[in-house]
Structures are given as C-alpha cells and as structure tokens.
Write a structure and sequence with these properties.
alpha/beta; Rossmann fold; 2 domains; four-stranded antiparallel sheet; 10 helices; globular
Length: 334
C-alpha cells in the first residue's frame, strides 16, 4: 500500500535578483515498510525534497507546484494543528549532524521527555521515564536508565544519532526520513546505524527514505533507488537493477566513481564526472546533464527529456523502472 506519493514537486527559493529552482518536477512514491534510497551530488535537491515533505522550508522557500500526499491526504493543505500532529506521529526526520539537534543544557532524559509529552500529553512522569528507557534500549544505547541523566556532549556522534532515532520513534511514525544520517560517522558506526534501521523496519514495519551520497552504503540497504540531479529525478527502480544496469549516463558515472575494495591508485585511475552541475538560478531548456554527458546528442539540447517507463525491466509492471534519457539501452561510464 502506498504511504507517500510525491508528484511533480517544484520548489523555489527567492534570492537577490533571481529565483533559484531547487526542485524541478520530482515524482516518486514509497510503500509501507519500504526503504527508498535517494542519491545524487550535493545540490541535486535531495534534502530540499525531504524538507518539503515535512514543510520545513526556509522562509524564502516555497512549494511552487506539485503534490505531496500522505495516505491520500494532501500535506500542503494541513492546518497548523494538523501539521504539528503530522510531524512526528506520521512522518519523522533525522539529520546529518545529530549534535545540532539537541539543546546542550538539556539532559537526554529531559529532551526525550519533552518529545514524548508533545505526542502524549497525558503521560505521567513515571510513564515518560519508562518509555524513554524503552526507546533508548530499542536503539541499543547501553545503560539506558543511567544515561538519561547525561548531556549531549557526553555521547559520541554514533550514540547521538541513535538517540536522535529514539526521538524520531517517540511519536510512532509510519515513515522516517533520514537525511544523510551516516555522513559524519566512520564506516563501522555507519554499518551499525544501517543495521539498526533495518531492524526497526522489520519490527515496526517502518518505511524509510534514506538520503545519501554513498552508493556503496545504500546498495545493500534500500529496496528501490531514486537518482536526483539538478532538482530532477533522472532514474528510479529496484536497487539491484539500477546498480547492475543503469539506464542514465549520470547513474553510470556515479557507479563508476566507486573505488573497488583493494584497488590501488597506480593500477586503476579513479573515474570522475567532468564539469559541474548546472546553475539552478538559470536552468536551460535541455537535459540538465547534457553538458557533462558522453552520450549527448543534438536532441538532448532541445528540451528536458521526459521520464520514460522501461517496461522491458519489469514486463509484469510490478516494479516501476524509469529513466530520463532519450538514448536507449543500459549505459556505461566513458
């Protein structure tokens, strides 16, 4: 069953003298209990899309078009009271640097208690304390009862991210948006966070949108992948299919830039995407990847290609495979 459906989302930011088009017609969906990976370079619109779902855009930002529907209900039409209930109870979010999400003068127990009371104002002090301990234990923070009395600076980055996940779970959400939650962590801690999220998915039937730069990390984690570039979705499909046979040159370039385990710089030259992403203040009416694409044709420069459904990847139609490239067939980075 579809939980969240984003259709033709457009997000703009007002700047001095120009309108920055951060998201340009992004569309995707996520089902209950599914993990959706969203990948792409910095500035591709991943985080802006996530913040739009939560309606957490900066003051100069606005949703200029499109639809965001959660369980069939339009998020943009929620009243302030309904939006407060939506955040946390329906959809929760964790961020890249968890240390910035905590008040340094609050103990972890006090911050968890505040979150729990927002969603359950009738809880007694003892019930709040017990639920706080249970949440910390669920995210595998040892000595949970004692650590309620600790302050944020007394925890490592990995433990703070686990506590941030506990905060997100306090409202019993159906969807968790994880905005690059492992970027600032070392690889062993990253693996622990990913394993925790997988366990929460199984235990709670929790749907997860996982935003990351790390294709290697997401490859064994997400059920489906959405590849974004210049505010657009360039490719979407099952993770295994997208990574094994990318149908967009940009996706192929991202995969080629991964360094295989054991590779030596003297034996293998690191593949890189030449050029830079387009200027979001002055988008051109062409394929956004055209200036960097090794397969570019004259047709690519005439208009933005539509998203093409690849029926050959899923003849039954059960698993949607889409890409935004007019050059047919799987791609390899050149």
């Amino acid at each position: 069953m579809t939980l969240l459906e984003v259709t033709n989302l457009q997000v703009d930011f007002a700047t001095d003298g120009a309108l920055l088009q951060a998201v340009r017609g992004a569309s995707f969906s996520i089902a209950e209990g599914e993990i959706l990976g969203v990948v792409g370079e910095s500035g591709s619109g991943k985080s802006v899309t996530a913040h739009s779902i939560m309606r957490l855009l900066a003051a100069n930002g606005r949703i200029a078009g499109g639809s965001i529907r959660f369980r069939g209900r339009e998020v943009q039409e929620l009243s302030p009271a309904e939006l407060r209930a939506f955040r946390g109870r329906d959809v929760a979010m964790i961020f890249q640097e968890p240390g910035r999400s905590f008040d340094p003068i609050y103990t972890i127990g006090r911050s968890l208690a505040e979150t729990l009371r927002v969603h359950n104002p009738n809880l007694t002090d003892e019930e709040v304390r017990q639920r706080s301990i249970t949440l910390l234990e669920e995210v595998k923070v040892s000595n949970a009862e004692r650590r309620l009395e600790n302050f944020p600076h007394q925890f490592s980055g990995g433990l703070l991210q686990r506590i941030m996940i506990a905060h997100a779970l306090a409202g019993e959400p159906a969807l968790l948006i994880a905005d690059e939650p492992t970027t600032a962590l070392d690889v062993t801690i990253q693996a622990g966070i990913v394993q925790l999220l997988l366990e929460l998915r199984e235990r709670r039937n929790l749907a997860i949108i996982f935003i990351t730069h790390n294709l290697a990390l997401i490859s064994g984690f997400a059920d489906r992948l959405v590849v974004m570039y210049a505010g657009m979705v360039l490719e979407e499909g099952l993770s295994a299919q997208v990574l094994a046979q990318p149908h967009h040159p940009y996706t192929a370039g991202l995969i080629a830039s991964l360094v295989p385990f054991g590779a030596h710089y003297r034996q293998r030259k690191l593949a890189a995407l030449k050029g830079t992403p387009p200027d979001p203040l002055h988008p051109l009416p062409q394929c956004p990847f055209a200036p960097r694409c090794p397969l570019v044709t004259d047709a690519c420069l005439q208009a933005v290609p539509p998203l093409i459904d690849d029926t050959s990847a899923s003849p039954s139609g059960g698993d949607l495979r889409r890409h935004r490239c007019i050059v047919p067939g799987p791609k390899e980075h050149r």
